[in-house]
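I'll show a sample.
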Amino acid sequence: MAIDTDYTEINRRRRRDIAILASGSILLLLVLWVTGALGWIECLTAVLLIAGGAFAYNVGIVASARVHRPAIRTRSPRSSRANQHQAQQMIIAALQQPAMVIDAAGGLVVYNLSAAEIFNLPAGRAGLSAASLRHPELLTSVERVLSEGGSVTCELSAVRQPGQVWLAKVTELVSGDTVRAVLVVMTDQGPVRRAEKARADFLANASHELRTPLTSISGFLETMQGAAREDREAWPRFVDIMADQTAHMRDLISDLLSLSRIELSEHKAPTTEVDFANIVNEVIEAMMPVAEARGVALCVEGEAGPLPMVAVEGEVKQVVQNLLSNALKYSAEGSEIHLHFGGATSLDAAEDAASRTWSGASRAALLLARPTIGAQHSRAVWLRIRDHGPGIDEAFLPRLGERFFRVDASRGGPVEGTGLGLAIVKHIMAHHRGGLAVESIPDEGSLFSLWMPALVLE
């Protein structure tokens, strides 16, 4: 081996240097003896000492080489391969993505736990064949890379998770000029596919929602220009309908723009300190005339004093206004809406204060609070609004907050709103790392609750 050769060469050079040094010293002593500067006894004694020292040094070098050479030679190719395999195991196990190494003989050299879960493999077991993966597309890609080299990408579905799609990248691992093994790294395509489906559904729903009022307006205009051109008495009714459809389309476009703006800034943490109590009271004051016009009483109960928090004031105000508007929309004349708000020492305490307060009601968590990294959550704020309207069937609770989903459509009655109000609320709460939940009992009413961290930025 190279290490053994280097060690022998070093010892050989050391012995040569000692021999040259000893020979030069003896020659010098002989010159001194010939010239009479040194007696023959002293000269002989010095020569014996130098020769003995050189001999002892050479013996020590030989003994040292015999001691160290076995240790060096124990680093055999088998030991080197074991160390290489252990290094591969450590690297593959450290990867968060599912990964594995397959050798040229078609054996699974190493794979991590993520890959074991996807392919239903026993964790930590050695000696498995690549055929146990049971994916012809992946095995074909592996064979291609082993024979041709390079890198190949293929899509495959998970064995234990139907419908889940993974993107597998098969890359060569070269030793010299030969592909000895391949590395397979997989990426979950689920989020990408869900985003594509959500985008397609959104475009389809948005175009449908906009087409409906446009079709209505266009139809009445054609009627007024054609069959009803001379029927001027019917025109005011047609104009009122077109005005309502125009207002609906204007509200829809406004909500779409608002939702788009919130989504664009959702990743940016709020930086302005506001008073949550003041925001709630301002919304209540603004909505009070609407409640009085509908004959609905607003019963408000909140903590005295300010509730400081870091938030976007306009967004939080929009959340409270949307929830209160929904409660007013579904409340009958003469009924009451109960609004409670306050502060808490933690997010968990705020969630307990805001929701799970209605015994016997069905509940669905529409959004879970997510603490912000780099911020301290010493306090939190919460709000709940309960109406005494028709309530919501338990089957529809989890769908609240979906874009364009409206409970009105499931009841067979007149459809109101744009179906984006709760979607906007949900995105704003996500922006503020808060939680959102709904509770309801059919024919008794609904309760919407929210809780947010009162962020203290470091």
